[in-house]
């Protein structure tokens, strides 16, 4: 036993000699072709080449052995990581019926006849039009992520809606088996992208959740008695990613908890039980309803996490908002969320395709927000919105996004100041929710990378790290998008061969002066958005909201 220890020490010293700190901190060049003052996040990377990755695997083995022998962190090879990174990807909406060159009027399914003259489907998608995404877009996006991000991130937040919409009801009605099949295809792409490799042998936790287009019928899922088969199906499909001890929970309600790092846990919610369009469930205030049970579970998980000093991120498909949740479900969500600011460090959602945040005030009825009449000037921009998800008639398909933008503005305006003296460690009256833009090119396809704070020690030692935020605090994000229009123009090889790259769009710190992504910072940002006389910040925010695709509409 002692010899083994000596051996490990020897290997340790040898590797120490070959350790070169310069490799540790690299700066990732941006992929932008035009001038760009902003810089993507600095990454702490350990595996930039084969050589360094072999070295780092060896270090991992040594660190692991050290830890199992001594019960402590190896002083050199298991450096406490200062920051962690993760990916948020959402709304892939793949459509096997999508054919480039077909008409937008046919949902990108049928070729034009001589009388058709409208826009046609692009190779990787049709930004701004009512079409789903070709399978190739999802494939190339995940290949890009595997190439560029896989080895740099700790886990993946994946917020649902993998399957196409049911827009082409007459000719290509969507059946349950289609939804399952499309989910299987996306699942296997995810597995391929995040499976351990020789270069990076880690098991990267990937956290899935159900979208309103992943259930059948559309928007509708009842409790386990009613929809046990669907829950069982997804429990099997996602079994690699749902911890064994959580499978029963998932089969009961479609939600689960998973550890994604030391003292860091993600709660994946089944937001379908809160969604106002889901007719199979009722409000969240009656004991026994699936929504009520989920809220109970949510609260219980947060209590558990608090006593174990674990930090929590919560994620789901449909964001908590008075526009999308049943009233009681929304109220319950913010009631619980506002009671755990010390535990709950982020809320990640999709569904709306637009890049934005919600600032929810737990102190008052937000109900009237729904009816606020607004006279702001962003009133004539038409594009696809959440209600593109609506099947009931085409009238809802193109919508005035200006209305939503105004609603957001009113929301930011309505939030009362946070009295930090009264807001306690265990209570924060405001909740900040991240809504990430989709891969489905409603605007341009987009993904997001977050940086978060890591404390190796327990936070009880917090006072010793004055410069550090509490463990799990979100620090900043980089927003990436791909200009698939440009990509198609530049294409000079086979579609199958051609790689797709995403480009750095902006960084939250640089773009918005957001020091970090805490509630206090978001509150201050919301007020700056409103107060800016020239509206320059607001316009910037709107351009980013639509992934630079509606810049003309939002020019001064
Ligand atoms: C939008 O607002 C501008 C300025 O207030 C106004 O002139 C215009 O008529 C409005 N457009 C619509 C469609 O309401
Ligand atoms: C995307 O590419 C098109 C075609 O070149 C160009 O007109 C457009 O400005 C580009 N948009 C962005 C945001 O890069």
TrEMBL record:
Task: Tell me which domain of life the UniProt entry assigns to the organism this sequence originates from.
Answer: Eukaryota
Gene Ontology terms for molecular function? endopolyphosphatase activity; exopolyphosphatase activity; phosphoric diester hydrolase activity
Hydrolase as a keyword of this entry, yes or no, is: yes
What are its GO cellular component terms? extracellular space; fungal-type vacuole
InterPro entries according to UniProt? ASMase/PPN1_MPP (IPR041805), Metallo-depent_PP-like (IPR029052)
Q: Which GO terms describe its biological process?
A: polyphosphate catabolic process
Segment forming the signal sequence? 1-22
Entries under Gene3D superfamilies matching the protein: 3.60.21.10
Keyword presence, Iron-sulfur: no
User: Which UniProt keywords are listed?
Assistant: Glycoprotein, Hydrolase, Signal
Its name, as the record gives it, is Metallo-dependent phosphatase-like protein
Native species of this protein? Phascolomyces articulosus
């Amino acid at each position: 036993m002692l010899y083994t220890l000596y051996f490990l020490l020897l290997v340790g010293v040898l590797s120490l000699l070959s350790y070169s700190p310069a490799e540790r901190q690299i700066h990732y060049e941006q992929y932008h072709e035009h001038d760009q003052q902003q810089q993507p996040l600095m990454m702490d990377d350990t595996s930039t080449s084969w050589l360094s990755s072999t070295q780092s695997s060896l270090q991992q083995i040594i660190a692991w052995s050290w830890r199992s022998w001594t019960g402590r962190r190896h002083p050199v090879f298991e450096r406490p990581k200062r920051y962690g990174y993760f990916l948020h990807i959402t709304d892939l909406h793949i459509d096997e019926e999508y054919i480039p060159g077909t008409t937008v009027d046919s949902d990108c399914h049928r070729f034009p006849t001589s009388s058709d003259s409208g826009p046609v489907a692009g190779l990787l998608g049709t930004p701004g039009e009512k079409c789903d995404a070709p399978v190739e877009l999802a494939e190339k996006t995940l290949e890009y992520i595997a190439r560029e991000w896989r080895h740099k991130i700790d886990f993946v937040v994946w917020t649902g809606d993998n399957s196409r919409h049911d827009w082409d009801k007459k000719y290509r009605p969507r059946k349950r088996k289609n939804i399952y099949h499309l989910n299987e295809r996306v699942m296997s792409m995810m597995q391929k992208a995040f499976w351990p490799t020789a270069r990076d042998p880690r098991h990267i936790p990937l956290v899935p959740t159900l979208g309103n287009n992943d259930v059948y019928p559309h928007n509708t899922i009842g409790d386990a008695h009613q929809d046990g088969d669907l829950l069982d199906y997804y429990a099997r499909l996602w079994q690699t990613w749902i911890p064994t001890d959580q499978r029963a929970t998932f089969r009961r309600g479609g939600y689960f908890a998973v550890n994604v790092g030391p003292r860091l846990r993600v709660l994946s919610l089944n937001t379908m039980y809160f969604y106002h369009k889901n007719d199979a469930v009722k409000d969240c205030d009656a004991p026994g309803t699936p929504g009520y049970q989920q809220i109970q579970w949510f609260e219980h998980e947060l209590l558990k996490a608090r006593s174990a000093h674990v930090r929590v991120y919560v994620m789901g498909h449909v964001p908590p908002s008075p526009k999308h949740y049943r009233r009681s479900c929304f109220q319950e969500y913010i009631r619980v969320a506002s009671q755990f600011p010390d535990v709950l460090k982020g809320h990640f959602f999709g569904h709306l395709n637009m890049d934005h945040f919600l600032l929810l005030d737990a102190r008052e009825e937000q109900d009237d927000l729904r009816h606020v009449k607004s006279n702001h000037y962003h009133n004539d921009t038409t594009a696809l919105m959440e209600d593109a998800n609506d099947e009931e008639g085409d009238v809802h398909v193109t919508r005035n996004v200006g209305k939503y933008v105004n609603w957001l503005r009113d929301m930011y305006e309505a939030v009362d100041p946070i009295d930090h003296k009264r807001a306690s460690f265990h209570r924060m009256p405001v909740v900040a929710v991240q809504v990430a833009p989709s891969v489905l090119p409603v605007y341009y396809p987009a993904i997001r990378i977050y940086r978060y704070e890591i404390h190796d020690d327990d936070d009880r030692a917090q006072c010793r790290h004055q410069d550090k935020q509490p463990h799990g605090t979100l620090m900043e994000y980089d927003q990436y998008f791909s200009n698939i229009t440009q990509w198609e123009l530049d294409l000079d090889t086979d579609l199958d061969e051609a790689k797709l790259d995403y480009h750095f769009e902006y960084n939250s710190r640089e773009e918005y002066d957001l020091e970090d992504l805490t509630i206090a910072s978001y509150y201050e940002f919301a007020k700056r958005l409103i107060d800016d006389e020239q509206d320059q910040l607001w316009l910037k925010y709107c351009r980013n909201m639509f992934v630079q695709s509606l810049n003309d509409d939002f020019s001064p």
